[in-house]
Design a protein that fits this description.
By secondary structure, the chain is of the alpha+beta class. 75% of the residues lie in helices and 7% in strands.
Length: 646
């Protein structure tokens, strides 16, 4: 749960950081269109050029692309040189295409859309915004997407595509609420309010503008608060609610006076003047309109000044001051001529720009073709690389497979060699160890058969004892051979079971007590009961029996054998210690190996099979334990093995 919580905190933090970065980039782009108060166009252009040259010198292509965007927007919004603006943006686009700078490319496309909007080519403007949308679909930058949709909404609204504009602005509203971008949410509500006003849906428009106003007040954005108040005032004027219209326009005017926003003041004075005209209070209307003229001279807003003179002419006419009414009308016509002249020049300039920009469009198309060609080359290279990787992987798989089969074959061959060697050595042991007892039996039986009459009672008794020893040795050998054979062929299922190891030791003590007593050997077993173990009981029983038998065999008369069990964390350690003949280090090295037959005669001339310890090692290891020996020649031996605890 803690890991999940930590992951969620990390994810939220990372997402917030990414959104903050995205918002920073969008703010950087939007601020390019804001005219700074303390910098001239020449100064802005000079500083941008210095940064461009610096980026070129340091080979910082990403920074160079961003500076080129800034130069493009500068020539678009301040210089009004659309051809030059497009030229800068095309250069930026070329860098972005070559380096796959898709994020910056989106801003370039938006700026290009603005250029074509300025020359009245809304279709081309919409095309570039569509390209920006397509790129953003792969970038998944929601903040940037809200900017693109806002631009698209504005273009659609200007072009008369009201339904598309509504769709765009509603999507912007949804995104800004999702990302908690309050300022952008207010802008979206403001734009929706204006669209609704055009459709004369005043109540819905009023609701949208009031929501925008509430957000702007909470953010203390005074300039935009005044804009919302102005729009609400105009809505109320359209709804014939002059009191509320006046209250909102006065509130907007007071904010704009504090901000000393001359261009906005002209609008507010004109709107208040229009309200007084509606009330037929022409003197107050004139007072506000004269203030509008004064602000208009500083702002040089010809459209608002034209409106001011029209309102003044109307007021003086109603007051029957025809001289002033005529003067105001003449001023209005003069400004109208100026505006029309400016409009004609602008249209001519737009026509020239369109012609020049048609040439630039060819450069853009060429860039697009170059990009497509580059993508085809990259795609072909990618396919070739993938094919080579696939070929290499296939080759590697074949090499690994061949190596694996080779190693498997070597392992199999080695296993077969080991099995054959084991088989040969086993047969050698069997041949040697069976031959001895059988020869003895043959000799004894021959003596008894042919010389019974000449043998004394004591001689017959001695032969019988020797015959008994040979038979017992032969029986032990056959028993071990059978057990070992069953183990090697997998016929013994070494399934672990719970049992008392102390009971196993006790059983074997009782079983071999007679053998020990015959050699006057003391067999000590003071292990407490119970000793819970978990292993294959029968195989462990065989190990214990073999080790005690060996100890009896190699311990002289009067010696002792001690059975001791020690407990560790996971195992019981069984030790069989005798005071017998012991072994040399060389002899110890040959123990437990079927390939190096090691069998010696006991202290009472008992024959060994050489197979018992091999069997013990196999059984102990298959039960998950280990076996070993500590021995000193002439002093005795300790054979020990471990059994998993129960």
């Amino acid at each position: 749960m803690k890991v999940f919580f930590a992951f969620m905190v990390l994810w939220i933090g990372t997402t917030a950081l990414a959104n903050a970065q995205d918002d920073t980039d969008v703010r950087w782009f939007e601020n390019l269109f804001v005219i700074p108060k303390n910098k001239s166009i020449d100064e802005e252009n000079r500083m941008a050029e210095q940064r461009r040259r610096s980026a070129q010198e340091t080979h910082d292509k990403k920074e160079e692309a961003r500076v080129l965007i800034e130069l493009g927007v500068l020539h678009l919004s301040r210089v009004n040189d659309y051809e030059q603006a497009l030229g800068w943006l095309i250069r930026s686009l070329a860098i972005e295409d070559s380096l796959s700078l898709y994020h910056e490319k989106i801003f370039t496309y938006i700026a290009m859309a603005r250029v074509f909007e300025e020359v009245g080519d809304y279709y081309k403007s919409a095309d570039f915004l569509k390209e920006a949308k397509n790129l953003d679909a792969t970038e998944e930058d929601l903040v940037l997407r809200s900017l693109i949709l806002n631009e698209s909404g504005r273009i659609n609204a200007a072009h008369g595509n009201t339904e598309d504009a509504f769709r765009d602005y509603n999507q912007v509203l949804s995104l800004t609420r999702q990302l908690e971008l309050r300022s952008r949410e207010a802008d979206a509500l403001f734009n929706l309010g204006r669209l609704l006003t055009k459709q004369k849906k005043y109540n819905e428009a009023l609701k949208s503008h009031k929501e925008a106003l509430a957000i702007r007040r909470s953010l203390r954005d005074k300039s935009k608060e005044a804009m919302s108040l102005n729009e609400i005032g105009e809505l109320y004027r359209g709804m014939k609610n002059y009191e509320r219209a006046m209250a909102n326009h006065v509130a907007a005017l007071e904010i704009r006076q504090k901000l000393k926003d001359e261009a906005a003041l002209v609008e507010s004075y004109n709107n208040i003047g229009a309200l007084y005209i509606g009330k037929k209070d022409y003197k107050r209307a004139i007072a506000n309109l004269e203030l509008a003229l004064e602000a208009g001279r500083d702002a040089q807003d010809q459209e608002q000044t034209l409106k001011t003179y029209d309102y003044l002419s109307q007021c003086y006419k109603e007051l029957k001051d025809y001289k002033k009414a005529l003067a105001a009308k003449e001023s209005s016509l003069g400004i109208l001529d100026f505006i029309q002249h400016d409009k004609n020049e602008r249209q001519l300039l737009e026509t020239q720009n369109r012609y020049q920009m048609k040439k630039k469009e060819g450069e853009i198309d060429q860039l697009e073709q170059d990009r497509e060609q580059r993508e085809k080359v990259i795609e072909a290279q990618t396919k070739l690389r993938d094919f080579l990787f696939l070929l290499m992987a296939f080759g590697l798989i074949i090499v690994v497979l061949v190596l694996f089969l080779y190693l498997q074959k070597r392992r199999s061959n080695r296993k077969l060699q080991e099995i054959n060697a084991t088989k040969d050595k086993l047969f050698s042991i069997i041949g040697h160890d069976l031959k001895g007892p059988l020869n003895s039996l043959t000799a004894f039986s021959s003596l008894l058969l042919h010389h019974t009459d000449s043998l004394s009672k004591d001689e017959i008794k001695m032969l019988s004892l020797d015959l008994d020893k040979s038979l017992k040795n032969l029986f032990t050998l056959l028993e071990n051979l059978l057990e070992w054979g069953r183990s090697q062929t997998g016929n013994i299922d070494f399934k672990a079971e719970d049992f008392d190891l102390a009971a196993v030791l006790k059983e074997n003590q009782e079983l071999l007590k007679v053998l020990a007593e015959n050699k006057k050997i003391t067999l000590v077993n003071n292990n407490p009961s119970p000793l819970p173990a978990k292993a294959h009981r029968h195989s462990i029983n065989t190990v214990v029996r073999n080790l005690i038998s060996n100890a009896i065999k190699f311990t002289p008369q009067g010696g002792s054998i001690t059975l001791l069990v020690e407990s560790t964390d996971k195992f019981l350690r069984v030790a069989v210690t005798d005071t017998g003949v012991g072994m040399s280090e060389a002899a110890i090295q040959r123990l437990f190996k079927i390939g190096t037959k090691y069998s010696t005669t006991g202290t009472a001339q008992e024959k060994g099979t050489g197979l018992g310890l091999v069997l013990c090692k196999d059984f102990v290891e298959k039960n998950g334990g280990t076996i070993g020996v500590d021995s000193t020649e002439g002093k005795g031996s300790t054979f020990y093995f471990t059994v998993p605890k129960g």
